[in-house]
Structures are given as structure tokens and as C-alpha cells.
Amino acid sequence: MIRVYNTLTKTKKPFEPVRPPKVGIYLCGPTVYKPCHIGHMVGPVIFDCIKRYLAYSGYDVTLVVNVTDVDDKLIGESNARGMPMAELAEEMTADYMQNIEALGIDVIDHFPRCTAHMGDIIDLVERLVERGHAYVSDGDVYFDVTKAPDYGKLSHRPADALLGEGGGMAERKRSAADFALWKGAKPGEPSWDSPWGPGRPGWHIECSAMSRALLGDTFDIHGGGLDLVFPHHENEIAQSEHATGRPYAKYWMHNGLMQASDELGKVGGRQTRAREGDLTSQEVRKISKSKGSDAFSEMLERFSGETIRFFLLSTHYRRPIDFSEGRIQEVETGLETFYRFFKRFERVTGESFYALPAATQRAHGDFDPGGDPLLEQVAELRDRFLADMDDDFNTGGAIGALFDLVRALNKYADQERLEEPGRRTPEKLTPLRQGAATLRELGPTLGMFRTPVEEAAAGAGSELTGKLLDLFVAIRAEARKKKDFATADRIRDGLAELGVTLEDRPGGTEWTLD
Ligand SMILES: [Zn+2]
Fold first, then answer.
1. Cα(54)–Cα(212) distance, rounded to whole angstroms?
2. Which of 402, 450, 452 is nearest to 48 (CA)?
3. HSE (side-chain half, CA atoms, 13 Å) at 508
4. How many angstroms is it from 189 CA to the middle of ligand 1?
5. Cα(258)–Cα(128) distance, rounded to whole angstroms?
6. Could you report how far apart the first and last alpha carbons of the chain are, in Å?
7. Pick from 360, 400, 362, 368: nearest CA to 381
8. Residue 108 CA, ligand 1 centroid: distance in Å
């Protein structure tokens, strides 16, 4: 049974969708005014993984990630650059989509753009005005917080802690905590016609309108970064529930933000201290002046998408992620353990790991170990993986189970000396194949190990390099057989100087590139 931590109730409870087996998920997406950095990729990777795991568990999931393509920041940036807002939004949306694709995120069903949902937004604002929950003031429309007694229920904030906007907006509001649903256009700003004159929507109302258009008044999971709990999500709930008279999202899931681990205390980003009893007692800092704020496309030149995905999933999603390139390198080294096993599996069985038939539904992945010691271990580790994922999507714990699984399979191959062709009997290969099929079943629920990695990303060099190294390894093995240790050592040492490490295993020699 899957259990989910809900920010709204501050409890971890069994996941019970509103209309099973259907599940609707809405994740707040980017404001497309500048190229994205790795911090923008945390939510998409986590919710891609949550969708995959729910689908594997038998649910029919719709995942929506919005694109905010009209906003103060966009207007400011388009003025600074002297280019039309729509053009800027188009360019930055393309950057976002490229990065999403590089990370293997391909299960998002809809990317609604705010400017394509003006009718839905205006409709929702009109409803709020009709119901007396919003008022018009000098071309702006504001939500009246005093008419919403449950305002603050998500962020669990006392009423006196509510923030308000300053400047001209403050003058047009009845009380400080009221927030804009519609902003009247200033001269030269992009605008849309509305019953209140030309203007544009406030940021919060966009998400209420787009989630309603695609998932209905009530849906299952609303996600976003911890920094969005207040005011963005608090305002979304207030708008949606008072406009429709129905409950909005059933579960609110918030991911931890990324902080620069090597620059703690020096990062100049906005800080939010989680309140007592909140998701985390740690301070979370947004990256701003570290390498993490580099354009994500540049980071993709140094690391593969799969490595970055593995890095983002190695921490529980509710915790802050410590960012440093050193940490990503560590994760990359760990990932190579899997890639080496996949090559070994192919050497031993003659089959590609990626072509192994594997269960895509949880119910089909069970197997009977039949008293086989390896398979008993595999079944136990599969159970551990599932228990971790069921426990509020603990991807870090689940990845630990995958490491133990690959270790168990390597140990078995060592003990049974499967690198020696004569030892490869069907009885010996069957458990290895089943173990690998389980890895092939579980990895993709995290979005991992779905397609063969590029040889270069696996640290294996080009195809020709691989063949040449295999040739050296074979010549060295022949030399050793003839007790010509001088030649054997010369090959090993010469390769070491070139950054190639040879590892003698019971059944043969493996090479790895630095
Ligand atoms: Zn949003």
C-alpha cells in the first residue's frame, strides 16, 4: 500500500485517489523568462518518477506541468532584452523542453501555457467576483482573504503572518493579505481583454484555472517546491475552493529545494526557514551564486541526463538536495557499477540487459524463488525496493536496494565463475537472468536503465576503443598463460598510464576507463 505525506494534513496516510484507478497530478512548472538551471529540474524528475511508480502500481495517471508565459518577470526581461514577451517565452520554453527530454522525462501528458487558457482564467475570476470572494478595484481584481475563514490551512500560518504586496497594489487593496487575481495593464504591457478592462492574470490564478481545465475541480495530487507552499499554493486553494464550492487537490506534495553544499551560508538566494513541525527542520536555500545556477544545458555537457536523474533521486524528495559537482561525480561512479554489470551480463549470457523481458506492472513481477539462494535474495531486495517506494516514494532507500541487488548478482557471477564459458550451464544462468530481469523491472519505475547509455557516458569510450582494449586484455591473458609476466605487466602498467584500469576477476579480466 502506497503512503503519501500530505502538507495539508501534515500526516503520512494511505494513498486513496478520488476516482480510482484514475490519478490526476498537477505540478507547478517554470516561469519561462531565463534558461533553466538544475534547481528547475528537481520537481519534473521527482514527479516523472512518481507517475511511473503509480502507473507500475496499476493506476491510470495524468500528469500536468504548466508553463507560465506571462508574468512580471517575463515583462521585465523582455523589456531589458528589447524583444517581444511571446518571443522570449517561446525561446525559454524550448530550452526547458530540451532539458526535460535530456533527463528522459517523457511521461508528462500536458504542458498548458497560461496564455492559451485566458478564457478559463477569466471564467474563474468572474465566479469569484459573483460569489463575493473577490472585488474589482481600479482595473485590478483582488481576492478577499477576509471572506475565506480557512485561509492559511495549507501553510499552517497564523493570520498575522500573512504577507501583502506593496506599492500601488497595496493602495488598491482592502487588506494587506488580499492578492491580485487580475492586474490591469499599464501602458505598453501585453494585455488581454476582460470584463474589468485590458490586463493579465495574477500568477496564482493561472494554476487554479489550468488544473481545473485539465484535471477537473477536484483532483488527486498537487506538487511543487517547498518554497511554493506560501503564498502560491495557499492562494490556489482559496481561489479554487471558493470558486467551485468543491475541494481542490486531495494530496499536497512538496519537494525540498536544492542548496549548494560547498557554499553553505554564502549562497545569496532567498531563504525560508521551515516552521516548527513543517516538512523539514532544516533551512533550505535556493541556489543562486554557485555553479548550480549555470544554465542546465551546460551541465548536460559534463554529465549525462541519466547521471543527473540518479543524483536527483538519491535523496528523499522532501529533503533539501545538497548540490555540488563533486556529489554528481560520486553518483556517476556509483552508476557505473550498474553499467559494468550490464556489460558483464551481456558477456556471460550473450543477451542485452536492455532487451530482457521484464514486468511493467507490479502484479506481474512476483516470482517463486523455488529455494534458490540467489533468487531468495533477489525477491527480498525487490520487496525492500517496493516497501521503500510505497513509503512516500523513498527513492534514496529504493536506490540502496538496487545497489544491493547488483552486488548480489556480481557476487553470484564471481562465485559461479560465469566468465568461464565452460561454467555457463542453463541451471547457472537462469537465476542470473531472473535477477537481472528484476533489476530491469525496478529501474524503469525510477526512469532509470530504460535505454542503453551512450558508450561515452558509461565511461567506456568509443566502440573501437572497446575492441582494442579487449584485444590487449586477450594478449595479456595469453602472455600470463605462457608465464611471460614481463609482457603482461607491461600491458597492465602501460594501460594504467593511459587511464585504463584492469581488474582481474576469477573468470577473466575487466577493464574500466577513468
Ligand atoms: Zn502553480
1. 21
2. 450
3. 19
4. 22
5. 36
6. 42
7. 400
8. 16
Q: Cell match 584485444: residue? A: 471
Report the separation in Å between the CA atom of 55 and the middle of ligand 1, taken as the mean of its atom positions.
24
- Calculate how far, in angstroms, residue 207's C-alpha sits from the geometric centre of ligand 1: 5
Going from the Cα of 357 to the center of ligand 1, the distance in angstroms, rounded, reads 39
Residues in Cβ contact with 179 at an 8 Å cutoff, skipping those fewer than 6 apart: 142, 143, 145, 165, 202, 204, 231, 235
Name all domains of the chain by residue range, CATH numbers in brackets: 3-8+20-323 (3.40.50.620), 325-446 (1.20.120.640), 463-513 (no CATH)
**Predicted confidence band at 497 (pLDDT cuts at 50, 70, 90)?**
confident
Strands 508-513 and 500-505: antiparallel
Instruction: Answer whether residue 289 shows pLDDT above 70.
Output: no
Residue type, 132: G
Q: Which helix (H) or strand (E) element contains residue 468?
A: helix 463-481
Check whether 273 has a pLDDT greater than 50: no
Strands 60-65, 140-143: pairing kind = unpaired
* Residues lying with their CB under 5 A of ligand 1, a single-atom ion: 28, 207
* The residue count for the chain: 514
- Residue 458, classed as helix, strand or coil, is coil
The crossing angle, in degrees rounded to 10, of helices 485-497 and 463-481 is: 150
| Residues 179-224: tens digit of each pLDDT | 999 999 999 899 999 999 999 999 999 999 999 999 999 999 999 9
Q: What is the DSSP string of 184-224?
A: EPPTTS--B--TTSSEEE-HHHHHHHHHHHHH-SSEEEEEE
Half-sphere exposure of 209 (CA within 13 A, CB side): 27
| Phi, psi for residue 143 in degrees, rounded to 5 | -80, 135
Q: Which pLDDT score is estimated for 288?
A: 45
- CA–CA separation, 27 and 63 (whole Å): 8
Q: 169: CA distance to ligand 1 center in Å?
A: 21
Per-residue pLDDT tens digits for 81-107: 999 999 999 999 999 999 999 999 999
Residue 353: alpha-carbon gap to chain centroid: 24
- For residue 173, what is its C-alpha cell? 487593496
**253 CA distance to ligand 1 middle (Å):** 13
| Peptide bond preceding 21 in cis form (omega within 30 of 0) | yes
How does 279-302 read in b/e, with b if 16+ C-beta sit within 10 Å?
bbeeebbbbeebbbbeebeebbee
Which string of DSSP letters, residue by residue, matches 90-108? HHHHHHHHHHHHHTT----
Which residues have C-beta within 8 Å of that of residue 408, sequence separation ≥ 6? 374, 377, 378, 381, 435
